[in-house]
Amino acid sequence: MSQIEFYKYQGTGNDFVMIDNRQQQFPKNDTKLIAKLCDRKFGIGADGLILLELSKLHDFTMKYYNADGNEGSMCGNGGRCIVAFAKQLQVIETDTIFDAVDGLHEAHIKDGIVSLKMKDVAEVEQFSDYMFLDTGSPHHIAFVDGIQDFDVYNTGKSIRYGAPYFEKGTNVNFVEQQNENTFKIRTYERGVEDETLSCGTGATAVAIAAYHSKKTSKNNVFLETLGGTLEVSFGTDTNSYKKVFLKGKATMVFKGFFEL
Prior knowledge:
The radius of gyration is 18 Å and the shape is globular. The strands form two sheets. Strands 5, 6, 7, 8, 9, 10, 11, 12, 13, 14, 15 and 16 form a twelve-stranded mixed β-sheet that branches. It has a five-stranded mixed β-sheet with strand order 4-3-2-1-17, with helices on both faces. The model has no long low-confidence stretch (mean pLDDT 96). The protein is α+β, with helices and mostly antiparallel strands. 17% of the residues lie in helices and 44% in strands.
């Protein structure tokens, strides 16, 4: 049996198994293994697994897998964590450009705070009782009252599998405004199929949705998740959003080995 070293990282409570896979030793097509490693009772426990791999043109490549073992769309908090991981591995120093499933990302890290550039957002769909946009992952956003006692799991699950998303699904965010540019957010994540303590692409989507729907006039927005506070800033160009940055702490929790 061979041993694989892993690291556990978290960004505002969104936690990940991180593996240095520059030598291509990890069997990344083994969805059952990935799901087992992410299992909180029979494995390491995480919302997802992230591989740091070589890139032909940039500092590294990020490969993200959901807790169900399948390769996922972009994960914002995971992106922040892999920047901290790359710094720990001495792949980068303070600034980086890396490859991810939704394209290139720039990032800066200082004192454990990672500022991650997200993809531009060209379209925000606004309906009578919800909004929808893609920030690297798809997000359904509903502004609600009494978010602390809101049934995120059951309501989120019904929306995630319901029309118009069905099997492909979406992440579902419930939001309550606190002041002019602060919003509380709770997220049901597809792939995890449960509420998570934080969702980076969700926080990004909520910040843009709040501005787009004129709930705030600020282009720097604070998102209070169950796991801590994230900051999102962006620039506007007619109805599109550019220079979108997700900022917050990314921390190593522990490291260890598992046997294949």
